[in-house]
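Notes to self after the Tuesday call (sharing in case useful).
The group wants a holo model before anyone commits to mutagenesis around the pocket. I volunteered. Ligand is copper (II) ion. Logging inputs and output together so the record is complete.
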Amino acid sequence: MREQFRTCPRTGLIFHRPAENLIKANAVAAVVFLLVGGFLGLLVVLTRWQAVHLLGPDTFYQALTGHGVITLLVWIIFFEIALLYFCASTLLRSRLATPRLGWLAFGLMMIGAAMTAIAILQGGSSVMMTSYVPMPAAPQFYLGLIIFAVGALIGCFIFLGTLVIARAERTYEGSIPLVTFGALTACIIAIFTIASGAVILVPTFLWSVGYISQIDPLMYRVIWWAMGHSSQQINVAAHISVWYAIAAIVFGARPMSERVSRMAFLLYIFFLQLASAHHILVDPGVGTEWKLFNTSYAMYLAVLASMIHGLTVPGAIEVSQREKGLNNGLFEWLRKAPWGNPVFSGMFISLVGFGFLGGITGVIMGTEQLNLIIHNTMYVPGHFHPTVAVGTTLAFMAISYYLVPALFQRELVLPTLAKWQPYLFGIGTSLMGLFQMGAGTLGVSRRHWDMAFAGSPFSFEYGGTAHMMMGLAGFFGVISSIGAAAFIIIMVGTILFGKRVSEKSEYTTKRPARLPRAEPAPDHSNIGVAGFVAPGTFILALVFLATFVVYFFLNFGYLSSVWPMS
Amino acid sequence: MSAILPPSERIWWKQPIDRAEGTWVAIALVWCLIMFFMMPYWHVYGKQNYKGEAYRTTPAAFSVKVEEMVQNHTVRHVTDRNIPVVRPPAGSDVYLLARLWDWYPALELRKGETYRLHMSSMDWQHGFSLQPLNINMQILPGYETVITITPDSSGEFTIVCNEYCGILHHQMLGKIYVVD
Ligand code: HEM
Ligand SMILES: [Cu+2]
Ligand SMILES: [Cu+2]
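Result:
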């Protein structure tokens, strides 16, 4: 038998060599694509900043299509595949199932991503990532996405196969850890997502080469969003798993209760992937009952799950800090948290930004009637940058600070820049999102080259405030881009030039010891306030709820001020 | 480190729930239900709803109806492109067509009157975004969206296209004039 496993001297993680190589390859591909996608984001935001108005209309729509596809699909999914392998093989100390197929998956994803990217670059496919029919893109635009998805699907099955192996070979005691459970949630949703994607993209590809004469635009939207939105739920499940992992890694935190956290993931599996209707609330020909049930993920049960994770992740950190003696008052545990450690600061900004900005606004937009005053405005990018860029992307950045040195056995370069990077990217992107929302509330459209409407027979002027909002979004977009660039510089620098870690870490043929259960929780009667073990988190959660309630009804106030309609 | 380790209790689903967690789950559940019931509530008591009324149509059939309305009710023309302004009778069916890259025709409505506004696209998808009110609807080819509106403010309103529809998407404006 060949030498297979090594133990990382710093982190104690046990890497199976083929899994390690695949994790490295997927993570590096992800970072390279983030570079491209982030750069396009900078061009886009500098064009929407009306005073700068950088690109012409053709290059703007081309860059926007590229930005959406490359960040949202390519960067995130490559990273997620790396995470899936990590959560199954590394966390469970198991060998990875079928590494050869892992390389096939990687190859297909690279080919697919490149094919779509080239189609966009050639100019005939500036159709936005949603590629709404009947606006046509080049056939290879769709084909690339399909090939990419096939690769990702293989990755999902390798993850499942690895879970089966780990169980059969008894590499761990008891049940799989919570983080792996979360990854399993992401994987199940991913399989559903890719199936929906196939149902819509395969016919669209055939249509683009002329085998199908017509695709119904409404049907396209319903099915496309069954893919498009569920893929966001993969992201949510994945980045929440990362939050739990970071809480465990940095603080040694244990979930407040396994039962609640796992139930919340189960709610995701049952209800989250349901949702696609919130993208078609103001579309013709969709029934009201279906809209209500679907847009609310069955009465908001999946939102409930997110609100649960939003409490239990910081709650777990609080309990662990209090156990260590930071038990004074409500917030000593938070004040004395390691704010200079990018693994923690990135995760915490991700959590707050995702909850307060991304989460609340997502539910607002998905409320059937409120969508009338939001659909397709800048409010939409204002919502999803806090979710996918602050929530998912920043969480992935945070865990990279932990994983990349362990994988490549090198010291992190530029530690001071690393300390600031999560703040630059997290706060820059959050504020960009906030001002985009402001502009959207004032009616500015998304995906729109010119808010001054040059060349139109009619004229219309947005107020000065709307222009100011877009300018501020532009400014903070630049900050956010600097933050993204800093991340890429640190990661590439570490991989290429980082100092080799001094401790030796050899591959051995010995199977790793079985992964033990966690220690049982100690008695908590001596920590916390008034019978609450995590009172600070509870107060923060109540602040969150109050913000949510006020903002929800405020929006109904706006709605009631527009023309009556039915 | 237990989130990355197997749970300590063999039967994790019987673990007792902490007080903070239990209370929060209960509060959050109540709020979720309130948000959910706000939607049917607004359908009954709110004034701004789109009930999803829509019909299948074709570009040809729809443009016939638009032309008929333009022939019968045009009151003037505006802009250097001579875009007709149509003043349909109060309470009537009004047709608005979206195409690359304009909204046709311009409309003149009376404040406080109710109209049934029919919209459809001749080609690709478009977005009806009425500014500065900020009312937004998706317009699809092959589907005729019908929405009953009662303008309760007067003045000049602009229809911005807010679904990306190609290179001159930014020039796609239309007008609704509301007179007292
Ligand atoms: C690097 C900093 C970033 C900047 C400055 C930026 C800026 C922007 C801007 C200005 C828009 C266009 C709004 C419009 O006109 O409709 C946009 C769209 C978008 N962004 Fe970003 N963004 C950044 C990072 C990200 C990241 C990390 C992600 C995802 C992981 C992301 C996902 C998207 C998506 C999906 C769209 C929508 C594209 C479409 O409408 O088809 N962005 N971004
Ligand atoms: Cu349009
Ligand atoms: Cu348009």
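Two things stood out.
Residues 53-179 of chain B form a domain with the Immunoglobulin-like fold (CATH 2.60.40.420).
The two ends of chain B are 69 Å apart (CA to CA).
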